[in-house]
Amino acid sequence: MNDMDCPRAGDLRLLIVDDSPEDAEIHARMLRLAWPGRVTVWTAALGEDGLALLREDVPDCVLLDHNLPDMTSLEFLAEAGAACAVIVMTGLGDEELVVQTLHAGAQDYMIKGRVTAGELSRDVDRAIEKFRLQRDLSDSREQMAAILSSVDDAVLSLNPDCRPLYVNGTAHEHLGITVGEPLPGWLCLTPLHAAVTAVLGGAERQLVEFSDGQRWFDARVHPSPGGVTVVMRDVTRQRLERERLRLLESVTVTARDAVVIAEAEPVTYPGPRVVYVNRSFTEMTGYTPEDILGQTPRILQGPQSDRRVLDRIRDNLKRWRPSDETLLNYTKAGTPFWVNLSIMPVADETGWYTHWISVQRDVTVQVRRTMLDQARRDVLEFTATGRALEDSLDVICHLLSSSLPGHAATVWVRSDHELHMRAASGDLPEQLRVDYTGSGSTVDLRQQRGVIHRAVHDARDVIVPDLLAPGVQLYEGMHALLVQHGLRSLWTVPLPASDGSGIIGVLSLVGNRPGTPDHEEAALLREVVDLTVTLLERFDAQAQLQRLALYDSLTGLPNRALYLEHLRRALGDASRAGEQLAVGLLDLNRFKQVNDTLGHSAGDDLLRQVGQRLRAALRPSDVLARMGGDEFTLMLPYRDRDRFEAGIARRLHEVFRDPFTVAGQPVFVSGSLGLALAPLHSLEPETLLSQADMAMYEAKRAGRPMGVFDTHAQINPQLVSLEADLHRALPQQELELHYQGIYRAGVREVAAAEALLRWRHPDRGLVNPDEFIGLAETNGLIVPIGAWVLREACRQAAAWQAQQPGLSVNVNLSARQFWQPDLPEVVLDALNSSRLSPHLLTLEITESVLLDVPDAAQTLGALHALGVRLSLDDFGTGYSSLSYLHRLPLHGLKIDRSFIRDLGQAQGVAENIIRAVMLLAHTLNLHVTTEGIELEAQAGFVEALGGDHLQGYLLARPLPAADFERQVLTPNQSTELHVDPLKPTALH
């Protein structure tokens, strides 16, 4: 290819294929003259060279000599294809050759030597433009053919003789129509033939429906140049589906559930279009078929429809899977209702999904019932676990706003002459939370205004159906505030106390639509009122119980548990700040004489007055508590010891200087105060109290009103001697058990025997348990002694089974025993050695065990696993936390004797406390034993409350085993004790 010229840059690129170099150069020069600086020309002398250049880089046009040394122009065109515009150059004007080259793909021809530069440039322009038009037309034809071949409809074009000029793939494959051949005979017998004839005769577009005996077709016949165009669609499936829907409608029209049928697609926005609803749908939603047909079921959704449920439904629709969901929908009037949706896809005989069928059932009543039941469970759990009142009231508000969508609820709790908002729905506008009453979150009932006051005063519901109705009057600002937030109704419902003593609170609901509660809503409100009243009364009882847990019921002062909590915190603060703290123990002198001569009521009155004077004499930073009996504890921070001791002595003198008026007469008493100083003497609370106790007894012995602990004080020799004797008591068999009967309330039948430890000293006689049990706990002897008590009590109870089947035995465990990791093994050994059934052994523990032993809960779990019963002793005298009553495996509790003793005093405080304990215990399925029963009136009071068991001198005193057997376990005792003896007799 030596004669090829390298092309250069330009706007137009041309290839000259000519074996005459002179002719090629003439034509190249003409082209450069025509487009100076804008044309690139390269040449080839052979056809093969021209084809090679064409394949490397396609030019805009080829000037092709007809007669080449290696091929003709026709052969070149066959090899090159329609790559670019081609002008064939001939030496003679042979018309046949011209026609052949044009048919072979050339765009033009010219005769060599008869063309000028201008004519040549025009011929090249025309050839290039003609090539581009032909290429675009060919592309359009190919694209149209591809489109027509891809559609499911049959498309064909007919000439005036009804012969097919064009047939797409569907028409050929499914109808057997072929280009150039007559239409199938069956097709000429259908209404389609008449429609084609009509359009060929000048008629407008024709629409016909016909069948071949198995299939149904819709056909559209359009006039077109030179004939007609026919588009046919197979509608067999649609006709069958319409028939199925007609049959389905005949079934669903009488169904009680709402039925909705929608098209299968689109499953995404805006959603399937509804094609059918039955009468029940209209009755349920208020939408008539005219309202809903052609719409999407999303028209039923509203502001509180759960997006998570809707997302699940949409995801199932995308996957063509059934859905079964419960959703909040809205009627045409905007009223919310709960509906259970069961949505199924419907397929035709080919498996193609065509529709969705949704069966909808109104489950508003069931959903409200479920919500109410769940709220009851939540409230009970919150109450049992000691959660705040506001947490439970939030459950009430959530219940109301969920059960009555479009309504926001508030709960008001009464305190004397005021109502306080204690909870509100989360969707209540913030401004309403603050300005709901016009005075913040408090209603003063003495102002006698507003709907809440009216509901409380009249003890009835106050319903404002429509805030926009004429004549609606609320107190200033309230009406405008509610309307401003788009609210239309106001329902106010009082909360009456269960004992009929008055209104204890109010439920208030504001709604975003007008209306009054319907029958079902009114029934729901009544149940919520009952639940809320129960909740408030239980929390009130718990509040009293919590006060009992932390405060002395007689004096109102902190009790030992709360005092120790204050003391531990103060000792920690004092240690970090370098401050000093005095721990005081005050004991009244001559108190027993007052109690014995004037009676217990007079003694209680004296203790209250002493507490009041002490509190008035102390500083705000001082802490005063009652430890029990006639002992008071003090916590007194100070800086200068001398000034502090002088000041406290002076105030102590002022407290006891004047007589107390008791039982109508003046009574003089004095007090002995012992002090221990921190950090001088110790930083341990119990140690400081023990030291203060020693200082108090030393002051009492010396006749002084106050004493400070002396680290060099002499050890009590009598105590040392007693401790030495105690070490010999167990091996010398000086210990014995006495038993006191525990009786079933009401029937007064013995159910159990409590084992009580006694020490028969060879010289001292019977030693008071208060003198040696504390000493045994201090020196650790309580561990082996406690193991002996367990074995002996189990042995004795097992021996009594023949005489008294089912009689159980109660054994007290000390905190020191709980420190021993093998306590469960000790109990199991006692049971195995005696062969006593585990359920006939009840282990009594005090609250101090739960407070002082770190792993007490694990030990209780291990004991519970043995099958023994666990009971909380002296309930109410310690911390009395509600949490462990719920968490620990307890079977019962025992109310301390001090509360029975206080019956009839202090404005019925003791009665209310016992009632609260009973209510709480029975709610938690715990049995209640009341000890200290000495009077028939006391027993009657407990039995009237539904108490389970009684214990006290009225029924039986502690007796040695032989006496207990003879006096209590008589031969004619009822054998009904085979029934669980410690199961509560009733739940209240």
Automatic annotation (TrEMBL):
Q: Where is the PAS domain?
A: 240-320
Where is the PTM 4-aspartylphosphate found along the chain? 65
Stretch forming the signal peptide? none
Any single GO molecular-function term of the entry would be: kinase activity
Q: Which residues form the Response regulatory domain?
A: 13-127
- EAL domain location: 719-972
Keyword terms = Kinase, Phosphoprotein, Transferase
Pfam families associated with the record: EAL, GAF, GGDEF, PAS_9, Response_reg
Q: Which domain of life is it from?
A: Bacteria
- Keyword Phosphoprotein attributed: yes
Span of domain PAC: 321-375
SMART domains under this entry?
A: EAL (SM00052), GGDEF (SM00267), PAC (SM00086), PAS (SM00091), REC (SM00448)
Q: Where is the GGDEF domain?
A: 579-711
One BP term from GO: phosphorelay signal transduction system
The name of this protein is Diguanylate cyclase (GGDEF)-like protein/PAS domain S-box-containing protein
Where is the organism placed in the taxonomic lineage, from the top?
A: Bacteria, Thermotogati, Deinococcota, Deinococci, Deinococcales
